[in-house]
Write a structure and sequence with these properties.
The protein has about 650 residues and is an alpha/beta fold. It folds into 2 domains: about 15-380, no CATH class; about 405-635, SGNH hydrolase (Rossmann fold, 3-Layer(aba) Sandwich). β15 and β16 (about 610-615) form a beta hairpin.
């Protein structure tokens, strides 16, 4: 006779670890609601992404409980373990990957489809975290247009499922036990996470070595819960307090941790600790029993895995169709569709597969199906277009979009910058260090200083000024005197008497909004005066428009019948700093060169001109765009 969740709870003795705990499904509900809210309502829940960290701790706890129990009673087998994992994870993932494949064939351009193929193959092979790490960098905004971005966490989990059984089997029956080795490996992984969060945040975010500690914390908890004689559960009177403390830590994580934090790093310990406390409190703690085990929370928890899989592709494909940001009501509609798809996936696919009880035929069929999906992904990635698509997007404006062609052009048409110490402390894009000069050697006469909005001027200036050696020195922040990022660059430029011209450019539109006007005007004025006092000719460059849509929306038409879009009203593309920049330049006796007029006419700004796209994303120029802006700048410089 089947028992409902409440009856199950009553059947467990105090301190027992049940095979099913509805409160853990409730905890899953908190995790998936947090992630979905973070993506669907930006800014409403700044730390919503920590839902993934909750999932990781839960996974480590449940998987380790299964393995340790099996090793203790002699019932563990790799065959059964991986058969169950395949039956649990593969069905919904195969459906979502296949749906994304079909959507991609209908919506995406050939280049986008190749990228999707790569991510389908990586998702099918559970290495999405590695693939995304290899292609990630400063331009993280493009991540919004990767429908399978969220599979990075599944890659981490699946890699743990290979590592964890091997480690636990190795420890089984040894005097040293489980807890000390598991805690040691977790501590090593946590130390790597903290270190990499400062040195290479992208690696810390995506790579398993920096994430395994979260799953291993769950593993340690599993051993503690199972060894109730050696490690008693909280006393009945204290269980609720322990659970409430855990929930408070999770709530604090959701509101205090945001994208500006160095994450995971030390901050990830907050949601991990909260999750551990809630699980350790046990199913009889009042918050676990009354809140997390209520039917709505349990239902959301039961569909949390397919909901996590569906929600991001729904938002990402909608964003691709819109060519940029999407209205809030459309976001909510997409999430409602994701909830419906998640429920259908759970009821029609996941539950029947689990009920089948097959430990050979079903897992083998699922592995073969996943192999087919992955192979199709590899084929799409290797192809140069699919001729048999019925209505692919049609080309309206020529031009390369995305960052690959831009940086490859710079790599093949410029030289590494000098001096080497500045270059050594500069970031890279896919291995291309972002510090360049147009000619080889140590003699340079123009220094282009700033962030990526200075960088995108470099190829155009290098081409338009063939007799000059232009060097780009960049960092992520504002090129202001007092910004430690630029200290060494400024020191070098003023000390090099061959450098007679300094060009300062930055993403003024976005970054100056974060500072009080009087403060940044004063600091930038001092920066200009600093170079002038050291005998440099200074040129202050205005900013380009910033669009709310991607250039693919301008380049192509025909995405499900949609027309292409290249322009929007000037008010929507930001700005407002040009008068202040001009004032600073005039006060400092230097020249201000505005460039937004090249793209804006009659209060409307366009990212295309004469049949060519000029941007590679919403606010970075491609090579033709760089050349067009450089024409104006070069005309004001001495040849």
């Amino acid at each position: 006779m089947k028992m409902n969740p409440a009856e199950r709870l009553q059947s467990f003795a105090v301190g027992d670890h049940p095979s099913y705990r509805p409160d853990i499904d409730g905890l899953r509900a908190i995790a998936v609601i947090s992630v979905v809210t973070f993506h669907a309502a930006p800014g409403r829940l700044p730390g919503g992404f920590i839902g993934v960290d909750i999932f990781l701790v839960i996974s480590g706890f449940l998987i380790s409980t299964i393995i340790i129990k099996g090793l203790t009673d002699g019932s563990f087998s790799y065959h059964e373990f991986y058969g169950r994992r395949i039956s649990r994870i593969f069905p919904a993932l195969i459906v979502v990957l296949s749906a994304c494949l079909l959507a991609g064939l209908a919506i995406l351009s050939d280049d986008e489809l190749r990228g999707l193929g790569k991510h389908i193959a990586a998702g099918a092979g559970f290495v999405s975290n590695i693939a995304l790490w290899l292609e990630s960098g400063y331009f993280d905004g493009s991540s919004d247009y990767k429908p399978l971005l969220h599979l990075w966490s599944l890659g981490v989990e699946e890699q743990f499922y290979i590592f964890c059984p091997l480690l636990l089997v190795l420890l089984s029956g040894r005097k040293i036990g489980y807890l000390a080795p598991l805690a040691t490996v977790a501590a090593i992984s946590f130390a790597v996470n903290v270190y990499e969060s400062d040195v290479d945040p992208v690696a810390a975010f995506y790579l398993s070595i920096a994430r395994f500690w979260e799953l291993l914390v769950g593993s340690c908890l599993a051993w503690i819960v199972l060894q109730r004689d050696a490690y008693p559960a909280p006393l009945s009177s204290k269980r609720s307090a322990v659970s409430l403390l855990g929930l408070c830590l999770l709530a604090a994580s959701l509101v205090t941790v945001d994208k500006t934090r160095s994450f995971p790093g030390w901050w990830a310990a907050l949601p991990a600790a909260g999750t551990v406390l809630v699980i350790w409190a046990g199913p009889h703690a009042w918050p676990n029993r009354a809140l997390l085990s209520n039917p709505i929370a349990v239902w959301i928890g039961l569909i949390s895995y397919p909901l996590y899989l569906w929600h991001w592709p729904a938002l990402s494909f909608l964003r691709i169709l819109e060519g940029g940001e999407i209205a809030q009501w459309k976001r909510f509609t997409a999430i409602a569709a994701a909830v419906l798809l998640a429920w259908l996936t759970y009821e029609a696919i996941e539950r029947p597969v689990r009920r089948s009880g097959s430990q050979f035929v079903i897992p083998v069929a699922l592995v073969l199906s996943m192999s087919v999906v992955g192979s199709v992904g590899i084929y799409l990635h290797a192809s140069n277009g699919i001729d048999w698509r019925l209505h692919p997007p049609t080309l309206v404006n020529a031009g390369e979009v995305g960052h690959g062609h831009f940086f490859e052009y710079i790599r093949t048409n410029s030289f590494p910058c000098t001096p080497s110490d500045i270059r050594a402390n500069t970031g890279d894009w896919n291995g291309i260090v972002r510090c360049f000069q147009s000619k080889s050697g140590d003699l340079k006469d123009i220094a282009l200083i700033g962030d990526s909005h200075a960088e995108h001027l470099f190829p155009g200036l290098a081409d338009r000024l063939p007799a000059r050696n232009v060097a780009f020195y960049g960092r992520g922040g504002l090129p202001f005197l007092g910004n430690k990022e630029f200290d060494r660059i400024f020191e070098f430029v003023i000390s090099d008497s061959n450098i007679t011209t300094v060009i300062i450019a930055a993403n003024w539109r976005q970054k100056l909004r974060q500072l009080p006007t009087a403060e940044w005007k004063s600091t930038l004025g001092k920066t200009v005066s600093y170079f002038v006092e050291h005998g440099k000719s200074v040129y202050l460059i205005g900013d380009v428009p910033q669009f709310s849509f991607l250039p693919n929306r301008c380049k192509f038409a025909g995405r499900l019948g949609l027309e292409n879009k290249c322009s929007e009203w000037e008010e929507l593309s930001g700005g407002g700093q040009e008068p202040a920049l001009r004032e600073i330049a005039e006060a400092g006796g230097v020249e201000f060169i505005p460039v937004s007029q090249l793209f804006c006419r009659d209060r409307r700004c366009s990212m295309a001109h004469d049949g060519a796209v000029l941007f590679r994303d919403e606010h970075h120029l491609n090579i033709p765009g760089s050349a067009m802006v450089a024409d104006k700048i070069a005309s004001r410089l001495p040849r």
